[in-house]
């Protein structure tokens, strides 16, 4: 149903009709699947990357300035690609690994390649918030580097890491929608094919609603988790 | 031989365009079971000195020997093990805020992979020693400064260290709390025989618990001896200034309300 031939009210009503949601629901499933898998990859790789970036500069807890410079440069290069270009660039990789350059698998590769460096930097800055004194205390008690990372650094940074990951997760959702127009399927695909190409504005409104709800849930959940931690630690 | 032997310790902080000589040949010896104070103005190098002892700061040259072990010659791994016997408390406490008091004190024990039951027993022991049994499940965020420093002391005590290094440990506390923390250190020293090295700019603290002291100026120890001796007859400039300021305060207190009569 289009706004060109129908009133806004009719289109709005139609946006909640069964006909629309029969198409939208499976797409929501696809989107959630892509978001979940790439979020997991981004979380694990991003935290590892963030920790490495944090501990390796000169004066860090495990100095390796050379490594730090190389890793930092690679991260900056990956981050300079806009998400749309990253999707196009990783298509050959997806084709080589998965045998096809479209579908959710290809999208996940692009998402991970784009969001891991971003979340890596965010994790790095979240770790910087942990006071150096705590790490020194851990060192003075005879902790090894790994013990400092897992028993002090990550637990102490948990609340700010949660906040950083919430932001990253929302970026992943928006990038998933973008990937829809490059053959990834999901919500973005619906929005482009029906909403843009066929002027089916009821579909478009439905996808917008879905995206708003998903992002709201993520943001609220992230805030609740980080606030609960800080409250538990009596820091707020 | 003394328990802590520091010989000809040098440390320079080098920037790109200027270098800053902070320790210029420190010689110091501390007997076992002593409470030893080191005073000096800001920038005299006292913090760097204490941080060189457990190599939080790497000295450029010279040696630090504690209980016969040459700390400066240890590899990274050996150093980590040796550090477990050298406790350290800080001006800013540096407690782990995501861990409870209990978990903070248990931390050094977990490093040693001690059994849970033994950890529980040891932490309870330490908690009663520092008088915070009722705060075992509290987070540092809800403690007062004095309580935080007690946890800091408890955390270093868990490992039964031979030495405790105090880096301006009471400088962030009010006078009353300072006294209570110093009392705790004194008690630990008497009960457990732990050697304590106290770095501070508060002469009051040194007078209160130290037997021996040293005065550090421009990266060298310029005066060293019994606290009573130095207080009565300071030879160095820094020592004199410190004692002068200190006694002028004392006199002021003495005349306090009687002034003008």
Notable features of this structure?
heterodimer, A: mainly alpha, MetI-like fold, 81% helix, elongated, B: Rossmann fold
Concise structural overview:
The complex is a heterodimer of chains A (236) and B (261). Chain A has helices spanning 8-15, 18-55, 65-80, 83-98, 103-128, 132-140, 145-179, 187-196, 201-232.
The residue fraction in helices of chain B comes out at 40-55%
| Multimeric status of the protein | heterodimer
Number of strands of chain B: 10
Low-confidence stretches of chain B: none
Q: Could you give a short account of the major beta sheet of chain A?
A: none
Show the largest interface. A-B, 23 and 32 residues
Helix content of chain A: over 70%
Distance between the termini of chain A: 50 Å
Tell me the β content of chain A. Answer: under 5%
CATH topology of the domain at 1-85 and 196-261 in chain B: Rossmann fold
CATH topology of chain A: MetI-like fold
Structural class from helices and strands of chain B?
Answer: alpha/beta
CATH superfamily of chain A: MetI-like
Rg of chain B (C-alpha, Å): 19 Å
Low-pLDDT stretches of chain A are none
Shape descriptor of chain B:
globular
Shape of chain A: elongated
Just name the CATH architecture of the domain at 1-85 and 196-261 in chain B. Answer: 3-Layer(aba) Sandwich
The CATH homologous superfamily of the domain at 1-85 and 196-261 in chain B corresponds to P-loop containing nucleotide triphosphate hydrolases
Q: Output the number of helix runs of chain A.
A: 9
């Amino acid at each position: 149903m289009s706004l060109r031939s129908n009133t806004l009210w009719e289109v709005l009503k139609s946006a909640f009709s069964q006909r629309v949601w029969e198409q939208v629901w499976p797409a929501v499933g696809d989107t959630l699947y892509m978001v979940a898998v790439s979020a997991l990859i981004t979380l694990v790789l991003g935290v590892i990357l963030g920790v490495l970036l944090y501990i390796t500069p000169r004066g860090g807890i495990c100095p390796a300035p050379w490594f730090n410079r190389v890793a930092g440069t690679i991260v900056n290069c990956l981050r300079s690609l806009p998400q749309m270009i990253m999707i196009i660039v990783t298509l050959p990789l997806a084709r080589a690994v998965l045998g096809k350059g479209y579908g959710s698998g290809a999208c996940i590769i692009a998402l991970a390649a784009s969001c891991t460096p971003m979340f890596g930097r965010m994790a790095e800055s979240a770790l910087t918030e942990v006071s150096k004194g705590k790490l020194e205390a851990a060192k003075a008690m005879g902790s090894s580097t790994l013990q400092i990372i897992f028993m002090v650094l990550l637990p102490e940074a948990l609340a700010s890491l949660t906040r950083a990951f919430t932001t990253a997760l929302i970026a992943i959702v928006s990038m998933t929608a973008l990937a829809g127009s490059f053959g990834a399927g999901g919500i973005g695909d619906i929005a482009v094919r029906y909403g843009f190409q066929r002027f089916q504005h009821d579909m478009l409104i439905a996808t917008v609603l879905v995206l708003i709800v998903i992002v709201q849930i993520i943001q609220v959940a992230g805030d609740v988790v980080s606030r609960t931690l800080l409250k538990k630690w009596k820091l707020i | 031989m003394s328990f802590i032997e520091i010989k000809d310790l040098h440390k320079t902080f080098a920037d790109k365009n200027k270098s800053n000589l902070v320790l210029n040949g420190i010689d110091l010896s501390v007997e076992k079971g002593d409470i030893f104070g080191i005073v000096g103005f800001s920038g005299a190098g006292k913090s760097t000195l204490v941080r060189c002892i457990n190599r939080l700061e790497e000295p450029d040259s010279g040696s630090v020997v504690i209980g016969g072990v040459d700390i400066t010659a240890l590899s990274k791994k050996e150093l980590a093990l040796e550090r477990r016997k050298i406790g350290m408390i800080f001006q800013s406490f540096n407690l782990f805020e995501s861990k409870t008091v209990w978990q903070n004190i248990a931390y050094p024990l977990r490093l040693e992979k001690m059994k849970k039951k033994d950890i529980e027993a040891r932490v309870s022991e330490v908690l009663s020693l520092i008088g915070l049994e009722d705060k075992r499940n509290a987070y540092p965020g809800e403690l007062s400064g004095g309580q935080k420093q007690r946890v800091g002391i408890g955390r270093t005590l868990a490992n039964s260290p031979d030495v405790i290094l105090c880096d301006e440990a009471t400088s962030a506390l009010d006078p009353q709390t300072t006294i209570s923390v110093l009392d705790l250190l004194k008690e630990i020293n008497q009960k457990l025989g732990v050697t304590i090295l106290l770095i501070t700019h508060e002469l009051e603290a040194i007078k209160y618990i130290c037997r021996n002291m040293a005065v550090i100026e421009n990266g060298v120890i310029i005066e060293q001896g019994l606290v009573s001796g130095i207080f009565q007859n300071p030879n160095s400039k820094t020592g004199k200034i410190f004692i002068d300021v200190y006694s002028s305060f004392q006199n002021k207190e003495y005349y306090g309300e009687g002034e003008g009569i």
